[in-house]
Amino acid sequence: MKPAPFEYAAPRDLDEALDVLAEHGDDARVLAGGQSLVRMMNARQVSPAVVVDINRVRGLDALGVTNDNGSSTLSLGALVRQRTSELSGDVAAHAPLLAEAGAQVAHAPVRARGTVVGSVAFADPSAELPAALLALDGLVKVRSRAAERTVAADDFFTGPFRTSLAPDEMVVGVEVPVTAGRSGSAFVELTRRQGDLPVCGAAAVVGLGDDGRVAQARVALCGAHQRPVRLPAVESAVVGADDPSAFTEAAARAADGLDPIPSCHGSADFRRHLARVLTARALRTAVARATSPKETTHA
Amino acid sequence: MSIVEEPVTGTRRWVGQSVARKEDPKLLTGRAGYIGDVVLPGMLYGAVLKSPHAHAKIVSIDTSEAEALPGVVVVLTGAAAAELVDPMPAFCAEPVEQRAIAVDRVRYPGEAVAAVAATDRYTAEDACAKIRVEYELLPALVDPVAAMEPSATRVHETLDSNVVFHRSLDWGDVDGDLARAHTVVRAKARWHRMGAHPIETAGAVASWDPYGQSMTMYSNSNFINFLPWAFAGILRVSTNRLRMIPCTVGGSFGSKHLITKVVSITGALSKACGRPVQYLEDRTDNVAANDNVGCDRIYDAELALAEDGEMLGLVLRIIDDYGAYFQFAHGQHGNAVAQPVGPYRIGSLRYDVSCVLTNKVQQGFFRGAGADPGNFILERLVDKAALEMGIDRVELRRRNFIQPDQFPYKIPTGNIYDSGDYEAVLDRALEIAGLDRWREEQERLRAEGRYLGIGLASCQERSGYNASEWWFLYGDEAPLPATSTPESCKIDVDAMGGVRATIGCPLWGNSPETVVGQVVAEEFGIDPSSVSVAYADSTSGAISAGPGGSRVTIMLSGATRGAARTVKDKMIRVAAHAMEMDPEDVECVDGVFRAKGAPGTSMTMAEVGMRAHLFNDGTEGAESSGLVAVHTYDHPYFTPPTADRSDLGAFYPMVSHACHIPIVEVDPETGHVELRAYYVVNDCGTVMNPALVEGQVIGGIVQGIGAALMEEYRYGDADGKLETPTLREYLLPSMHEVPEIVLEHLETPSPFTEYGVKGAGEGGRLVAPTAIASAVDDALRPLGVWVDELPMTPERVVGMVADAQERR
Amino acid sequence: MPDKVRIRITVNGTRHDLLTEPRTLLADLLRNDLALAGTHLGCEQGVCGACTVLVDDVATRSCLVFAAQLDGASVRTVESLAGADGTLHPIQQAFTQEHGLQCGFCTPGMLMGACELLERVPEPDREDVEEALGGNLCRCTGYQNIVRSVCTAGRLMSEQQQSEQSGVRA
Questions:
Q1: How far apart are the C-alpha atoms of B498 and A210, rounded to whole Å?
Q2: Measured between alpha carbons, how far apart are the two ends of chain C, in Å?
Q3: In chain C, which residues have their Cβ closer than 8 Å to the Cβ of B26?
Q4: HSE of B533 in the Cβ direction (CA atoms, 13 Å)?
Q5: Average pLDDT, stretch A267-288?
Q6: Helix (H) or strand (E) holding A229
Q7: Domains and CATH numbers, chain C
Q8: Is Oxidoreductase included in the keywords of this UniProt record (chain B) (predicted)?
Q9: Would you call A194 and B734 a contact, using CB atoms and an 8 Å cutoff?
């Protein structure tokens, strides 16, 4: 199990990296943490002609919060390691869902090399971080030699391991809007074995109104569809709810319209079942945390 | 058989102690010498192209592009390899030929279709990627029941049916017991295909000498000192020109007994180019094509009981999916009939087995080797009987246990159980588990809507197999009715008194050096750390079947003690001669030879050693020079089967026993099962080394957790493709899945073995799966769940809950 | 064939200046080019952790890193632990004391993962060990003794440090 030959490029700055991508397009793959890419290259499931190692590119490892016209944004550059994000005070304070989902990704040594952006760009429909980014209403920052654009996470993921990224583009960072007010979030998943990709996972972010009822909700799933997926029907059904049974009722619709990819770890039907169960649990926990912020246990 | 007279354990100095492991320093420092570490001058690296298809004709193979790659030395198709090596040895009577590289037809996904040797592994894989194979697909047989249909496509055209073997045997009056029973409990069960998957794959380094027509073969095979002639047959080398050299083995669990495919492919590549070649399976080769697969059984079973719960008779009807070949015959059933009735007095048995061929990798051997699903079905039947008859499951077991005064006990098949005290084990297990406390916790959690379950299983671990189990289910047609399963040890004491042992079994992850050190130390009264231990290659003549069937500590103890005593007796004679005493009056205490009971005149090991090596003074009574002895220890208690197989004889008579009590919590919505606690009481006779036995038992339990919850080969229903080709799909338990395991020992020594030791290598895995199954259905009893299929994946648990709800 | 890449890399304190194919995995560079066979390959998929080494003090699966990426890096392998005189490192001592290994094939990965953990968390508890080594598979031991070994190693190292400090004071 050894990779096929390739040309190795180790650019020192972003323009240089984008030049290589512009030249080689689909024949090139960006290497950041490599915890998925190198595995697939070893198995020759992918055999890029050129590997663009961005680990030496300056300026991609920033993690922080910026304020602009009263709205705050948490941003993570393409070289922010998953472990760094998971342990970051800024992430814990402003996007606890990202930290909670991040802590469930693989194992600590894998997270020490793997990057948040790498997971997003890889777009594994079963992975935790893309679903978390969806539930956080995140944005994907994309660059090519010619242009720079920002894509809403929901528009970024187009299919299994597929994104709206053009061959000459790379993801340079992700952003998460920071919201004020009474809010809570939760990420729950079922894995066959701790640290494995989940069979199914559910991310929920809720905001409560002054009356204690759900004012806004965002729910996303992994492992339940061709891509990480938001559940607008569930989201609108829980608005106004304040009773755990209402979340279960809303979650009953979680699998409507989903087309899960079956595997040896779970059939499509089982994934639909888990979508309903885990959505209800994520909502209950998120609301419980919003209600009493110290609440940390899963419902 | 002879009954071995043993002193009580307390009088021993080294046997029974947690002596430090001799193997550790080399293993801890990365210098153990695994097969992947063997590098010979001029060595090439091999790789294999595997079939992606389950069943297909090979229409054509074009190797030209691969051969043109720089660095590629040899490309072998199956046809080309057939010019160099012969088919694999078959232990079956049926005409099922198997070659290491397929010729004309592939019969399972992952079967080798070509092999390459190149200057490095990367280049060898580049070459594999450039071999063009044209296949014509054939229907893939995945479901063993469908494969039994007469109309099904045949896996082998040489056979009339895919049911390659069927036999039904009755021992005792089965029909009578069924007729007079008050209750007949019936259970169907499914035990899915699992694999050993040691962290090190199988591999070999072959070096062919075309001038001397001789082959040197390094490998991590076990049987190098047992069946070297079988390898010579494959490799077309004279048996006396094949030298097989053992390596430290990175785990086997039964999977590396033979590894004939790897040896054959490596040997063929080396013969093709006249250079040394290393071929190591990568993980996908190992999962898809190594012979490391255990049983794959469908049970339809009945247990007949009298009104008071007395077990009368047992019926086991089994369909076993053997995969595409039958190299090891119905192996894993010979094993299962060593203990089909478990620890219970069951008077009759019907064993009806159908071995079916399908398009999957063939069965090999995996820890438990057939007794693992046997324990599963029997304990499920007992639990079901307890439920149906309204008898407490503990009480039902007590009523039926074989009693301590009934040993040696002959079970219906003819096998003998040597000794045991099953009720004492059960009592102690219940005590350390604190059953009442867990029942209270179960009540408390049920009130919260949570599901805690308490499992229980009381099972046997037969140990020390005899080769008769390989063939006795055949009649006269058995191709190789062998009856020897020896183990050898050579001991020599040098002129300075240094003791060296050379053993025929390789290091498989167990602790042969430590055990040999303990035995030698016990016999001479010296420190075990002073004994050096080496591994024999196949030129030594140290015939040894090595580890397998939980035999190696039993057999090595016998071999080592025999050799040590022979040498010690000679040293006593040499010392007596030198000290002008009668040998009867000389003893060896703490490594010193002295007058019995009168420690005045004495000689050290070194003094006797020097005398024995250089001072044969030619006087009458002087011993021949040198201090060396080889002892080959045969199976301690074997009797042959009768011609009509109404009695299979004693073939697996050292029988350990254990009671496992796992505590689980089940989430019925997601199907997740969490182990909260685990209690074990184990009786493997005299415990040679408590730390090492604990390691074996706990390691086995964790493999049993895998069997209960995670491990399974899956092949696509439609196309037969392997869906679990790596350790991302075939799941081994990790640290996270393992609870704290509390383990105690009781000791009922075996009367048949040296020191009274019995086997302990497989017990953990033999008991844990069925114990955890009982815990899960204890947890889900309020929902009416009955577990009849392993592993209990989340999806299966959710399905079982849904089915139970539907039945209500 | 693509151009070879020059790397300057320090392995177990020894500096190397090498030309390597871009696709050479760190594990293969160690085993084949530098004859450090203590690093074992179990799955080449990052699942088993047997090939774990320390790259700039961080536990890393050497099957998922190209050697070409490591220009300027410092790597430690299992061969760095014991002294040339045969003195075992306290982590190795603890593994033998607690019987934390059987076949030994996963052991180098366990030791190096433990090494990183103990440099961060001097006296780890079970939870710390599970976080650090939960992704390392062992098929022999059932893990219980591995956890014990790492916890014991922490104590041995603290004791050693204390006795060294008191030695300095005296």
A1: 86
A2: 62
A3: 104
A4: 24
A5: 97
A6: strand A229-230
A7: 5-80 (3.10.20.30), 90-169 (1.10.150.120)
A8: yes
A9: yes
CA distance A101 to B228: 54
Residue found by looking up tokens 């094949």 in the block: B242
For residues A194 and B709, give the distance between their C-alpha atoms in angstroms, rounded to a whole number.
Answer: 13
Q: Are B794 and A190 within 8 A, CB to CB?
A: yes
Tell me the whole-structure pTM to 2 decimals.
Answer: 0.97
Q: How far is B663 from chain A (nearest CA, A)?
A: 18
- What is the CB neighbour count within 10 angstroms for residue B434? 15
Min mean pLDDT across A62-76, B486-500, B649-663, B679-693 is at A62-76
Share of chain B above pLDDT 90, in %: 96
Nearest CA in chain B to A197: B728
CB contact A197 to C (< 8 Å): no
A10 Cβ contact list (under 8 Å, min separation 6): A53, A55, A56, C68, C69, C71
Q: Give the residue from A264, A260, A209, A206 showing the smallest Cα distance to A236.
A: A206
Find out whether B45 and B117 touch, Cβ atoms under 8 Å: yes
Amino acid, res. B138: L
Q: Measuring CA to CA, which residue among B658, B725, B728, B663 is closest to residue B696?
A: B658
Q: Does C79 touch chain A (CB under 8 A)?
A: no
CA distance C91 to chain A (A): 19
Residue B509 in contact with partner chain C when CB distance is under 8 A: yes
Q: For residue B640, what are the contacts with CB-CB under 8 A and spacing of at least 6? A: B468, B483, B649
pLDDT of residue A181: 86
pLDDT (tens digit, 9 = 90+) per residue, C125-149?
Answer: 999 999 999 999 999 999 999 999 9
* Mean pLDDT score across all residues of chain B: 96
How far is Cα B98 from Cα B258, in angstroms, rounded to an integer?
A: 14
ipTM above 0.90 for this complex: yes
Taken as a whole, chain B contains a residue count of: 808
Residues 6+ apart with CB under 8 A from B83: none
pLDDT-derived band at A241, boundaries 50, 70, 90: confident
Contacts of A282 in chain B (CB under 8 A): none
B residues 390-419 closer than 8 Å to C (CB): none
Work out the angle between the directed axes of helices C126-133 and C144-169 (0-180°, nearest 10): 110
- pLDDT number for residue C166: 80
Kindly state the tokens that stand for B806: 């539907």
Question: Residue A218's beta-bridge partner residues?
Answer: A205
- Residue in chain B closest to C50 (alpha carbons) equals B199
Compare all CA atoms of chain B with the CA of C138 and give the residue at the minimum distance. B199
Q: C91-103 burial, b if ≥16 CB within 10 A, otherwise e?
A: bbbbbbbbbbbbb
- In this predicted structure, the answer to whether residue C24 has a pLDDT above a threshold of 50 is yes
- Minimal C-alpha gap between C27 and chain B (Å): 12
Chain A nearest C-alpha distance from B715 (Å): 9
Residues on chain C touching A12 (C-beta within 8 angstroms):
none
Q: Determine contact, residues B454/B442, Cβ cutoff 8 Å.
A: yes
Q: Check if C170 contacts A (Cβ < 8 Å).
A: no
In contact, B284 and B50? CB cutoff 8 Å: yes
Name every chain C residue with its beta carbon within 8 A of the beta carbon of A113: 58, 60, 64-65
Alpha carbons within 13 angstroms on the beta-carbon side of residue B15 total: 29
Measured between beta carbons, which residues in chain A are less than 8 angstroms from residue C135?
Answer: 106-110, 195
Per-residue pLDDT reduced to its tens digit, B220-274: 999 999 999 999 999 999 999 999 999 999 999 999 999 999 999 999 999 999 9
Q: Which of C140, C141, C149, C152 to substitute to test the interface with B, most B CBs within 10 Å? A: C140
User: What per-residue confidence (pLDDT) applies to B638?
Assistant: 96
Phi, psi of C126 (to 5 degrees): -55, -40
Quick check: helix, strand or coil at residue B175?
helix
Round to whole Å and give the CA distance between A24 and A18.
10
